[in-house]
Amino acid sequence: MDISVIIVSWNAKRYLRECLESLTQTPSLLTLEVIVVDNASTDGSPEMVAAEFPEVRLIRNDQNLGFARANNIGISQSTGRYVSLINSDVVVQPNCLDLLVKYMDEHPLVGLTGPKILNGDRTLQSSCREFPSLWNNFCEASGLFRLFPGSSFFSTEHMLCFPHDRVIDCDVLVGCFWMMRREALETVGLLDEDFFIYAEDLDWCRRCWNAGWHVNLFPEAQAVHYRAASSANDPARFAIERQRAVLHYWEKYHTWAGRFGIRAILLGGYFLRYLLSVLSRQVQSAAGKENDKRLLLSRACMEALLSGGSARKA
């Protein structure tokens, strides 16, 4: 088997169907297996997979085990020399998988690569990141990156100024679409299951570099990522889970000073957003749904931080 595609799904039926159609309707020159790991969806997703895509191997978990653990279950059942982790809200463009395999076959030091990612409207979606630091997190939380657009000094960990138009080594490749070399998986290990969702890509990329493998972008291959297919079901919970993941990453790789610093930056950033949302309500009688959402998420994340934690483990 050349490629094992693993898709973790949770209540994203419409997106999942489109994702699977993009895989099954595009002929490949390579042997391909598709594994869907369903995290106890209640929207009919697993039933849809079984009825409409009988060639897909379906693994049904009896509870939501999280993104990292569910992917690990899929990886353990896979046989391909390359393992591709693809989000349920991704549409794979023609020849994408073949191009990625060809590139990795020609570059044996690359342990992880991925395609150029496009938004639903086909604009660029940034998928390359720098490793997080206190400075680039401060630039994001304070809004400095907005005051100095195009400045590498005031940029966030998101490489927004990079046009994603060439092959490049990057610290982190966002985990919505990965192609992993089997040998890299064997040396780096599986995803860290202490990350329920989010930041497992930061962690695995760091471990990949530490093990001597390269992480890079291969933009000749392309995919569309709609974003937030599952997190839209419960935005407050997922915002707190993202915060928890960030804090776990800092606990794993940084000293107490770094952990204190990132908590202070996160708290300050959420307080600033909360304050701006309140002021917006004062200026406008009806600030709008997006403003109300920012208010809700900022308050929820601040409460989680001030309570001494970040989020429960599901």
Features of this protein?
single chain; 314 residues; alpha/beta; Spore Coat Polysaccharide Biosynthesis Protein SpsA, Chain A; 2 domains; 11 helices; disordered C terminus
Give a quick summary of the entry.
The protein is an alpha/beta fold and about 325 residues long. It contains 11 helices and 12 strands.
Describe what this molecule looks like in 3D.
With 314 residues, this protein is an alpha/beta fold. The chain has 2 domains: 3-127 and 164-229, Spore Coat Polysaccharide Biosynthesis Protein SpsA, Chain A; 234-306, no CATH class. Helix content is 44%, strand content 20%. The chain contains 11 helices and 12 strands. The strands form 2 sheets. Strands 1, 2, 3, 4, 5, 6, 7, 9, 11 and 12 form a 10-stranded mixed sheet that branches. Strand 6 (110-118) and strand 7 (124-125) form a beta hairpin. Helix 1 (13-24) runs parallel beside helix 2, helix 5 packs parallel to helix 10 and helix 9 packs antiparallel against helix 10. The model is unreliable at 310-314 (pLDDT under 50).
Portion of residues in beta strands equals 15-25%
State the CATH superfamily name of the largest domain.
Spore Coat Polysaccharide Biosynthesis Protein SpsA, Chain A
Name the CATH architecture of the largest domain: Alpha-Beta Complex
- Number of DSSP E strands: 12
Query: What level of helicity do the residues show?
Result: 40-55%
Calculate the mean pLDDT score and round it.
91
CATH fold-level label of the largest domain: Spore Coat Polysaccharide Biosynthesis Protein SpsA, Chain A
One letter per element, helices H and strands E, the order comes to: EHEHEHEEHEEEHHEEEHHEHHH
- What is the 3D form? globular
Domain count: 2
Radius of gyration: 20 Å
Residue stretches low in confidence (pLDDT < 50, at least 5 long) are: 310-314
CA-CA gap between termini: 34 Å
The profile of the biggest β sheet is: 10 strands, mixed
